[in-house]
């Protein structure tokens, strides 16, 4: 082979190597190595790709730090490793000393790659559930409206699987401090009153995931997923509105 041609091929190979994507792929599953590592850790207990949970959405992080260069990557790696608060609110992010710098770097590259990319989570989210409202009647005939389904039908005889799941999770774990059937306990307040007083879903989620260490409430991040906390919230809200009585609610599980 002629030396000029060999030199060109070598330069081409070097160029392709340098231009390779920073986001490495994990095998043949299509998911990036960084996303794979993030999902294998507890990162998704407090973060989602396209909406805020306890911490910011990953696509919001990508938007804020787009095009900032290697120093930003190093800063984010350090932040994930050491934890702390200040950049996105007052709730401190848990430190992750168990993760290697190399693994965190892969995660950061994946997060930053989300800028301007369509979110698969958004694409798969049913549009019909957005802004949906349901109206029910309490035992005394008072109409109340919720943004989630409490019952499977208009007869209000059986609660949905989600509300029943919330009942199960609450009365398996939360009751220890907040009292059975969400009526308040010896160590923690009546959560029905918290919701009645204006606590929003987002505040409820953040409190459950981050905990309140000063008051002895543990963080449930890594144990519960967002859908579990939402089910618990829906159950408590249904109790607060007097739609679900104390005890095991009738459901498809019966």
UniProtKB/TrEMBL annotation:
Residues 29-115, 161-240 form the Cytochrome c domain. GO terms for molecular function: electron transfer activity; heme binding; iron ion binding. It comes from the Bacteria. Keywords: Electron transport, Heme, Iron, Metal-binding, Signal, Transport. Residues 119-139 are annotated as: Disordered. The keyword Repeat does not apply. Pfam families: Cytochrom_C (PF00034), Cytochrome_CBB3 (PF13442). Heme c binds at residues 43, 47, 93. Coiled coil: none annotated. Residues 1-26 form the signal peptide. Binds 1 heme c group covalently per subunit. InterPro entries: Cyt_c-like_dom, Cyt_c-like_dom_sf, Cyt_c_ID, Cytochrome_c_Oxidase_Subunit. The keyword Signal applies. PANTHER family: CBB3-TYPE CYTOCHROME C OXIDASE SUBUNIT FIXP, CYTOCHROME BC1 COMPLEX CYTOCHROME C SUBUNIT. This is Cytochrome c-551. It comes from Dyella thiooxydans. The lineage of its organism: Bacteria, Pseudomonadati, Pseudomonadota, Gammaproteobacteria, Lysobacterales.
């Amino acid at each position: 082979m002629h030396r000029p041609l060999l030199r060109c091929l070598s330069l081409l190979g070097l160029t392709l190597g340098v231009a390779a994507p920073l986001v490495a792929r994990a095998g043949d599953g299509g998911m990036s190595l960084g996303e794979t590592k993030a999902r294998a850790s507890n990162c998704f207990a407090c973060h989602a790709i396209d909406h805020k949970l306890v911490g910011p959405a990953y696509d919001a992080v990508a938007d804020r730090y787009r095009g900032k260069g290697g120093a930003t990557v190093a800063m984010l790696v350090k932040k994930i490793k050491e934890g702390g608060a200040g950049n996105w609110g007052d709730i401190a992010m848990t430190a992750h000393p168990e993760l290697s710098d190399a693994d965190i770097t892969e995660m950061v590259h994946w997060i930053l790659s989300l800028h301007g990319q369509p979110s698969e989570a958004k694409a798969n989210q049913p549009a019909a559930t957005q802004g949906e409202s349901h109206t029910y009647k309490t035992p005394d005939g008072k109409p109340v409206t919720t943004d989630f389904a409490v019952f499977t039908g208009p007869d209000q005889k059986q609660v949905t699987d989600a509300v029943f799941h919330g009942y199960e999770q609450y009365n398996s774990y939360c009751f220890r401090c907040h009292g059975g059937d969400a009526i308040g306990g010896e160590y923690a307040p009546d959560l029905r009153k918290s919701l009645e007083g204006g606590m929003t879903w987002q505040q409820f989620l953040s409190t459950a995931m981050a905990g309140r260490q000063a008051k002895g409430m543990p963080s449930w991040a890594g144990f519960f997923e967002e859908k579990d906390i939402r089910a618990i919230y829906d159950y408590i809200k249904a109790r607060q509105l007097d739609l679900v009585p104390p005890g095991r609610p009738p459901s498809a599980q019966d």
